Structure formats: structure tokens, C-alpha cells
Amino acid sequence: MPGLYSFLKSYCRIALWFYFRKWQVHRHEPTPDGLVIFVANHQNAFLDAVLVGCSTSRQPWFLARANVFQKPWARVVLTWLKMRPVFRFRDGFSTLRKNDEMIEGCVDLLRQGESILIFAEGNHDHRWHLRPLQKGFARIAQAASKKNIAVKIVPVGLQYDSLSQAGSRVLVSFGKSISLTENPSSQKDEKEQIDLLLAQTSASLQSMMLHIEGTHYAHDAHLFLQNRKLKTDLVEQLQADQQLISTLTSENQTDNSTSITATPNNLRWLNPIFLYYVVNHALPRAVLQWILKNKVKDEQFIGSLKFAIGMLLVPLFYLLQTGVIYSLSHSAATALAYLVSLPASLLLARSTAAR
Hints:
single chain; about 10% strand
């Protein structure tokens, strides 16, 4: 069902433009022709996959943790969404043997001209921090190389201003591609090749995101936000943020707080556009907040679920509320004007409140 997949991707792109105040894509070089494995950092559950997939003209297959494929209906839906399972040690030692089948399956996809997206850290982490990369993507590339299938690694850096706040900003950076060395002639060479790929990819990813060491993370992140100055261009913002982090020291840590919040702009309540937006989006916001409060236990899913639920709820409430306006006014022109004003008020309210 390629038509439905393309439609869903297009709809997600529209939703991303509304969810983020700014969504910027930066390419250090054009994505190479031929076979590609995209390797990205992972901070924000499935929203990361949506962002990478919607930031490229490719339609990559996504590798996701195996436990989400357990139910038969999930396997059908996720396969239709171009997802394949990857098994981790925590899924049980016996399941790791299935990764050999997964690697062969990925090589087959590459042979067919498909691209692959993998989050090499293994799982998401709700911090500005790059963790050690797992070997999966390197083993896939190496297995493809042994079968004379030329493949390139394209690192993808995701940098969020806020990992859970709607109306924030995000930068998606596609790094320079990395090629494999010559085919290894011994097991030792294979290990060296994998280690080299891991090191090169990790260095590239770290250059395209904000990396705060984990030793005194809360203190350094809090100090960073206190001293951060906003810039319009997100590439310049990242460079300034990285420079700021490099000047911080945690030798005399005194703040053990893990709460990292931004100061709200209270003047926005004096803005009539913002008030119009708040009133007309109160119902979907209330439903979303109820779901997040009562059904979500892992805060690392908050940003992704805000996006996914909002993508479904907001258009539905737009139509319902427009129907109410039409029933009261009996005017198609009035109802249409109201419908157009809803997304417009969302965009204008975020733009003015951010100033």
C-alpha cells in the first residue's frame, strides 16, 4: 500500500509544521545516491523516527525493538509501516540469535534498493546526551559488503530545544556519509572495521547535537539553560549551545535538582490572538492532558504522544467545533472562516508568544 504510506508521510509532515514552532533540516552534503543506512541519535521515542522519515525524500525501513511486535495485529500494522524488529539482550539471550535473521533481512532490503533507519543507541533517553552506539548498523553494513552490496552510513543528528514541549524547535542534521573500509580478510579485521564505524558515526552524531556529559547532567543542563541565548537559525543555535557547554564546569556541583524548566512568557495572556487560540483549543488540550496524566507512566513518551494524539484529536475537534458554528450561524462562509482561523490562530499564537 505505497499510496497510503505516502499519504501518511505527507500528513505527518503537515502535523510536524504545526507541532513545532520551527522544524529545520540541514544537510552537510546531499544524501548520496545508492544504498543508505541512516543512523540517528534517539531522545524522543517514535517522534524521532517521524522526524527523520519526514526530513528525507527516501522512505526508509525502521528498525524498532522487538517487544512491540509481539501481538499479531501489531506485526501486520508495523510491517505495513515499514518497520522491522531488532532484538536486544534485555529481550532474552535466546532471542539474540534472531538478530542474524534480522541482519540478513536488512541486507535483502538493501539489495532491493531500500534504505534503513536505525537508532544505534538501542533505546531512547530523555536527555541531551549521546550514549555508546550498538553494533547493529555496522554489522548490517559489513554483511552487505561481504555480498558486494555497496552501502553508506549517513549519521542523522536530532537536536530539540525541548524534548516534551509542543511549539518548540527542532533541528534535523544529515551528516557526511561514511563508507566501509576494504572487505576484511580476517575476524580481527572485521572487529576493527566495526569499531572504526562505531567511532566515526559516534563522532559525527555528537557534532550534530548537544552533548552534556552524564556525571553532573542536572547541574550542567540547568546552568546551560540559565545562560543560553536564543538564535533564529538552528544551526547557529546548535553551534552557540555547544560552545556554551564547552565552557561549563561541574567540578563544584551544588545543584542536584533534576527539574529543568523554562520561564513562561506571561505577557502572552495580553495577546488577543493567544486568548483566541487558548479558548478554541481548550477541548482537545483537556483530552490530551487527561490521557497524558492518567495513561502515560514513562515521561520519555510525552513528546511523542503529544504529537501523535494531537495529530488525531486536533483535526477532529476542528471539524466538530466548525459543525457547531455552522449549526448556530447557518452560514457556510462563517463556518469556513472559523475553520481557517483555528490553525491560523495556533501558528500566530506560538509565533507571538515566542517573541
